[in-house]
Structure formats: structure tokens, C-alpha cells
User: What shape does this take?
Amino acid sequence: MTVASGGPVFPSRGALRPVDPRRVRITGGFWAQRQAVNGTATIEHCRTWLDRLGWTGNFATTGTGTARRRGREFSDSEVYKHVEAMCWESVRPGGTNYDRQLDELTAMIAGAQAADGYLHTAFGRPGQPERYSDLNFGHELYCAGHLIQAGVAAARTGRARGLPDVARRVADHICDTFKDDDRICGHPEIETALVELFRVTGDERYLDQAARFVERRGHRSLPEHEFGWRYFQDAVPVRAGEVFHGHSVRALYLAAGAVDVAVETGDDALLAAVAGQLDRTLARRTYITGGMGSRHLDESFGDDFVLPPDRAYSETCAGVATVMLAHRLLLATGDLRYGDIVDRVLHNVIATAVADDGQAFFYANTLHQRTATEAVPPDREQLRFGGGPRAPWFEVSCCLNNVARLLASLGSYLVTEDDSGVQVHQFAPMTVELDGTPLTVETDYPDGGSVTADRAVTFRVPAWAHGTAPSRDGDQVRLELPMKPRWTFPDARVDATRGCAAVEVGPVVMCAESVDQEDGVTLDDIQVDTSVAPEANAVKGRLIKPVERDWPYQSQNENPESSDPIVVTLVPYHRWARRGPSTMRIWLPTT
Amino acid sequence: MTVASGGPVFPSRGALRPVDPRRVRITGGFWAQRQAVNGTATIEHCRTWLDRLGWTGNFATTGTGTARRRGREFSDSEVYKHVEAMCWESVRPGGTNYDRQLDELTAMIAGAQAADGYLHTAFGRPGQPERYSDLNFGHELYCAGHLIQAGVAAARTGRARGLPDVARRVADHICDTFKDDDRICGHPEIETALVELFRVTGDERYLDQAARFVERRGHRSLPEHEFGWRYFQDAVPVRAGEVFHGHSVRALYLAAGAVDVAVETGDDALLAAVAGQLDRTLARRTYITGGMGSRHLDESFGDDFVLPPDRAYSETCAGVATVMLAHRLLLATGDLRYGDIVDRVLHNVIATAVADDGQAFFYANTLHQRTATEAVPPDREQLRFGGGPRAPWFEVSCCLNNVARLLASLGSYLVTEDDSGVQVHQFAPMTVELDGTPLTVETDYPDGGSVTADRAVTFRVPAWAHGTAPSRDGDQVRLELPMKPRWTFPDARVDATRGCAAVEVGPVVMCAESVDQEDGVTLDDIQVDTSVAPEANAVKGRLIKPVERDWPYQSQNENPESSDPIVVTLVPYHRWARRGPSTMRIWLPTT
Assistant: This one.
């Protein structure tokens, strides 16, 4: 299995063709800085914690059955995502070479594989639960899926030699084991992994098995659980769904796998079903940041228009998964508008989730922080549900390595080709080696709105820039996006933001953070004046003086007394919580 | 230990004296009906499920250590609350006699008690975890507390002979075991139980131990857990707290125990601290229904003014606990306004939680149901977190027996005495045997606002009836409460209800339920006109026609097109979800 080309998503057909990420060099600006930090600090940080907590060690010791295994059922997947991130990073133009670490971990992983191909450090050995004895939460096929994705990345980058064969033996075991029954894994992931392995190997068994997993879902074959079958997307068949529901990361991973199956099997009905579900999810169940999933309890989508900014969940991994899904639909359909949600998620979820030093992370990305965050010491694992600040690690630490693999392979999400030319979806200064004419893009987006390409390309024009058209100037194509700050208002059916407005600048959602406000300005008492155009970092408003009462429900709809006009200072949402404890809000009540 | 008088809360001192519940007969109306259903159908329903699930059987079988124990760590407490409910019901004027069942269960419980007094069916026997090995979630002292409360009820009613001695041996064991260390139970309850046992026995060891448990709390002695110490009220000492926080039922039970300790030890500072915490909780963290606790994940209070109606938690048990706490503060301080929150909780949480047949229950009492509820079959245990309709039972089934014991003893919450006379706090038609002149109250509250007493009494005047004063007419005292439907508006800081109003009639919160609306009226599209006074069961409004868009955030704050005027039909919130699947909302967006 020697391929050594391609990125994370390389369909064999579709409207647009992806570009090998090693041919895309981000030359500066917003994402180059983040890729650099990711490629060194974040990846090394992750390895430190994986070793400290024993999650890598699980592979070395469980072979003997004597050592006590560490971590949750899904900890293996973190090692696999870490390996995947290092593969992409090692071939990224300007990236860091991790060959030594990849070879070391590959040997460790290979050593833990059973003779029949099965590989999971928490099941099947003496003193452990039986294989596949906890389909709801065992995460066995989920972990296998991430191993296969790592193996695919190894094959496409020519790194981590030996890992593609380990992955293939895992996949063969799964195809043998799950061919003829109705079992599925509580957490989707295996579907997209098997399709990508088919794309690398050409072996249709993997595609067939992925298709079976997609079709089996939705028939309540998983054991009953208090979260209900909808949590697992096992209540409604994939092609019969109306809108994404249940656990948001599960829903989005499943949808990505369904798109992969649909593309490779030419199943237009399945493709249209998932595309429709994403459309309706974007229209009714997505935060202004592009974040998905509003419930803390079961990490799930809420009902339509239930999008409270307070304690918004908006898990970082759901952001990664949204990028995965939208990119697949972009490639399949050629519909450029899918780039809009990628743009929004990258600048408002992914960019928000990671600390400047690349060593602390948000698990959940709330849109409103009423009680000041508290600092987490750099050596301290954080509790997932704290709703607090960025933390170095979590017991459920899926988001860190997920962001790392996305940022290391970000080059593959920016530009595509088809027979008629080149499309630029995401705006970053970059050089792209194309078979014909190479491409150079210059821009300081999102700080500025000018984007120029030195050859003919099609630019995505974001929906917020409607009416804007690129212009041709000799060999150059230029796009001038309107970056004037703008007021944005929510649909009347979003109860939680009624009477509020937000400010956006290009793709960037702004917020008010307490550390920027004048003395005496409490964020929960501000009202802003939307009759005045917002400035880049400030809006006009006033401060209400709430009457403190014994009971907060009154027979008069009093307008509380308000202050003289004040200036409310704004910063990009992705910049919040970087300057000490603070409160924050995106949605601002209007006067 | 022969007492045979008193109700659930009988302090030895305080501003007001409670009345023995067996001297209070509710003669008709709203609560007589509910007491009748509770005293037969609900109590029998609970016994059926306790037996079916093996929770009673645990007492019979664990003595041998051979049978597999059933249910969660706190299932014993359900048997104890069931026993307590039957004690009160058996002496309630017009109540049902459960002596046979009480004797049977008492023998079963006594048979499971260890030689040293310890009693819990899930710990300490062969094959079970060690005693007190899981202080966070073992619920051992919590269960002991409910056993002691049942023993106190047995002593005060003269029922369940033998149970008071079982309870006392449990309490002695606890005093011996926990006298000299810093351990507390993850779920408060033992505090109030030990004080009540002191009140029955006069043995100060119980009071001292209760005081120690109260003072120990707040020093992070419990093991760390992902919900944090605030969940367990173990982050801040009780007397240093600002507002109730963490798990709502835990917080309220602890507060009730702290009031009990403060009253019996004359600790005015502790009493004032808890009273202040309740004041601030009512002002900032309580739903219009009187419900407390907004978070599903950890069943906790949200931050100040975070009270989203969508997926409101408002656990039924938190309603019971609010009544317990407010009644204690009423007795301690003589401040009649504590009756207001009792009134509100009874009519909007307790009355809502129970089905008409007394055999199905809400665990959580949401204020907004966007997706139609689904019926739960009468033999089907429901998942606690479903957010669905009333269900016959839950895996965590605390609410059912809690409501049963409250309703069976409701007579003790209506009237008090002091040296100067009699106070009527809750309005129901009733006769009360008092040492001097008996009292008869006539009213059809909450359907009507006239309340008459046939002798001199002090009436509580609810805050919503401000300006109303009782009048004297011969021997009669009459209160005419204004029952005209009224608009109610939320504090501007409650983000989730901005731009909304609700309708209240007396103590009753109204709601719009889908089954009452005309064809084509979708609850999430209504807007109401608050310039027109509400009628008893209807308000005027219009229907907006939302524009369906790809993305719900727009640069224009468009007023969606709206319909001709419509009538929005209202019903009391406590009547909702009784006529098939429906959607519902209390807070109505205004035009």
C-alpha cells in the first residue's frame, strides 16, 4: 500500500478535486501563525500528556495483560489522532518532521495488535471486558476508525511506515466480524475511515462495509440507554433524517461517512439527504459562531432555534467535524457556499478553542460567560464540564488532537480544482503548486478584505459579502470583500437572543469582554444602540441600572433607568479569555 | 420514644408554632382532590413499583448476602419516604389507613439493620463496597436521613411501631462513627433528620452531630469530582454562602438542615445567612413557577438570571425542598412573605408534576416544550433526562415519594399559631381544631379570590395582591384577593425571556398549549399584545410568518410579516400535558 499523495479527504469522484496539502504553503498571516504553533507546541504538548497519563503506555503494556490500563475507553483514539497530525505536519511545507516519533509509536501500536487483527487496549484481554461487549460506549470501532484514518494519512504521506498495514489488518478484522449482523458502534467514525481506506487501497470490501454501517444505523439495534436512541443517531435511518440530532459530534461524523459512501457508490439520494440535513441544521440549529450542539448533558443538538448563548456547548470537536462534513459536500457538489460555514467555524470555533501558546484549549465554546473564568494551572487536567477557561488537557481530551490534525492539514481545505479551473474557498496568503500554472494568493484576511490571485481562479464570495464580484486586472484576479463592521440580528424564533444584536466583521464574530470595558460597566447591564453603525472595536450604548427586587417578575414592563451614552469595546470572539479572568458576551441587548 | 403528636417540622422554638396536621382537615377544592388521589392511587402506585423493581425486596434479601441487590445506591430512601407518606396519610383527617403495610415494611426494614445499628442495603455486606467508601455518591447518610425522618413521622403519628427505635439506632451509629472526623455525605439530608430526631427525643447528641455536619460542609473534604465541589455545596462554608448554588435539591436540603440547627441552637447568624441566601436565590435564580435549578447536566442552579424556559430543569424534588425550607424560615422568623413562594411552588410545580390519576409524574418541569411530548406507556419506566411527559416511574425516582409525603402532610403547611393568634398562610377550605376557638376557612382559591375565616386570624396577603387588606365582619375575617388575570414581565437581566410576557391569575402561572389553539397557530410563531388586558383564558396577539432562510442571522432586524389578530388560548400551567401530545410555552413574545 504505497500511495504517498493526497490529503485527509481524497474522493475518487465528485464535482471538485482536492489539492494535495503538501503543495499548499500558507505563507503568512492568521493561519500560518497558528499552523506554526500547532506544528511544534501543540503536537509536543499532546505527546507529553499522552505519555504522562499512560495513554501511549497502554499499547506497550496491555500485551502482557498485567499492567493496569489507564484512561477512558476511547484513549487509544487520541494516540491515533496524534499520529495522524504528525503525518500531515511532517509533509506540510515549512512543517516539523516527526519521523522518529512516528516510527516509535507505530512500533508500539503494531505490537498491541492481536493475531486476528483486532486492536484495542481496553477490551478482550484477561481481566478486561469482552470485545464488543459495550457497543454504546465501548468506542471500539470508533478507535479503529481513527487508527484507519491515521493509517491512511501514513500511506498518503509516506510516513509512519508499517502503520498502513496495521490499519488494513484492523479493517479486515472488522469486515470479517461485522459483515453479516446488524451491529453498529455507538460513536460513528469507522464509516468515513473505511471509505478513505477504500480510496487508498481500491479494495471494495471496505466501501461495502462502510455502506452497511451507514444503512444499519437508525433501527434501534443499540442497547437502550437513558439518552435515547436519538443520541446515537440510531432512531431514524440516515437517509430518512430531517435535521441533525442527538450527540453533535456523532451526528456530524456519521454524516461525513454517509457523504463518503454516497460519493463512491453514486448514491445521489443519500447525498441529497445528508445535504438537506446540513442545510436545515445551518438554518435552525447552529450558533452564529458556526458552533453546533447546545446541550451540556448529552452534548447534543437542541430543538430547532434552541440556541441559548448562556452555557452554549458548541464543542470544539463539533467544529472540526463541521469542517470535515462541509468540505466533503463541497467536493461532492461543487456548491461554493459550503465554504461559508468552514470559514465561520475556522475563525470563530477553531481559532477560539486554542490558546496563543498552543497548549491550552476550550472543550466547549460558550457564547456568553456571566461569571468570570478562573485560570487553570498549566499542569492541571481540567474537568470537561467546568465551562471554564482553556485547559491543558481533559479527561475526555478528544478536541486537542482533533484540532491538531485539522490545522496540520489545513492546506487541503483552501483550494480545489476541476476541469475548468481552480477555486479558492478560504482566503490566506499562500502559494499552491498546481500541475499547470502555479498560484499565489495575497491577502491579510480576515484583518483586511483584499484578496488577489496571480492567475485565473474562481473565488468563493461569502454570503455576508453579497453583491461583491471579483475583478480581473491583467493576469490578476482581485476580490474586495466589505470588511466594515456590521450589525447582525437573530431569527425571531431564537428565544434566547430576542432583542439582541451582534457585531460581525467579515467572517469574525465580535464580543464584548469585561477586561476591555470602562470601570463600572457590567456586561449584563449594557444595551447597545443599533441605529449607530458599529466601529471596528466599539459600539455605542448605555448602561441600564437594574432595580434590585425580591422577585424578578413584575406587573410593569419597566424600562430600567439608563446611564449617559457609553462606548462598549469589542474584540474578536476568538481573542477572548486570553487576558486573565473575564466575563464575555456576543449577543448584546439593544436599546 | 412515644410522642404521637406533631408534623414533619416541629421546632422547639421560633416565631410561629406549627399545627399538628391531624387537626387540619382540608374540606374540598383544589388540594382536597389532590390529597385524596395521593392518599390512595399514588401511594399504592409507589408500592407496586417499589416491589416490582425489588427495592423493597432488597431489605428482605441482603441480610443473607446472597441475592443480587436491585436499584441505585439511594433506592432504600424511596422505601423510607413511602413509609413516611403512609404515616402522615394514616392520621390525615379523611385519610387512608396503612397500618398493615407500615407494620410489614417496618419488620422488613428492622430485619436488615446490622448489629451495630448501620442500615443500608448496598454497602458493607459480602460482595458489596465497604461502608462509607463512596461519600460523593453512596448516599448512605442521605438514606439514613430519610429513615430517621420516617422514624420521626412514625413516632409523631404513633404508626409503624418499632420504626422509631430502628431510626434511633441508625442515628446512634452515625453519631458514634462521624463524631470526630471531617466526613460528610455527598447528598445532604441527614442534617434536618437528626435535628428532628432531637426534637422528638430531646437527645442533644443528635443536634450536636447535625450541627457538626453543617459546619464541616464547604471545606472541600469530599473527593474531587468533575462536577466540582460547588455541586456538593462543599466549596464554601454554609454560613459564608452568598446564594444557593450547585445541585439544587442538595442545596435546599442542606439549607433546611442549617435552619433547623440554627433554630435549636439559637444561632441567629446562621439563620440570617441561610435566609439571605434564599432571598438572593428568589431574586435571581428562580423561575416564575417557583421552580429552582436550570441545568440538566448536574441538576444545578445556573448563574444569576440564567433561567432559560427551554429545557428548564426545575426538578419536582427541588419544589418539595423549597416548600420544606420556606416553611422552616416562616416558623423561625414569623415573616409571612415566605408563604408566597410556598403558594407559588404548590400551584405551579407540585400541582404540575402529578397526573390527574396520581400515577404519572414529571421529574423536570420545563417552562417551554417546543417538540410535542410523547406518551409513556403506564407500565414503562421512563428515562429521567428525556424531558418528556409524565411517566409512571424513573430509574432515579426520588420525586414521586417526595410529593406523596408532602401532600399527605400538607395540612401542616397551611396554618400556624403564636401567642397573639392564628395565621393563615395557604388558602384552602378547611377546618382546624385549635386549643381555643376552632377555625373554619372557606374559599375556592385559586379559582376565586374570596377567603373567609370564622374567627380572628391573620391572613398572608400575597405580594401580587399588594394593597389588599382583610376586612372584619362580625366574627368573620374576609380577604378578597384580586384574581384578574395580569401580565407579568421578567427582569431585563434574564436574557432568555427578553421581550416576553407571561400571564398570571392569582398564584397560578398560565401557559399556551398547542392543543387549545386554532388550526395553523404554531406556538413558536405567536406574539401577544400586552396593551390589551389578558382574559382568564385568552390573550390577543398575532402570528408572525417567519422567513425561512439558509442562515438564521441577518443584517436586517426585519419585523416578520404578521397575521390578522388572533386569540391565544391559555390554560393554567399545571393543567398542561394532560390531553395528549402537545407543545407549550409560558413566556410569550410580545408584539
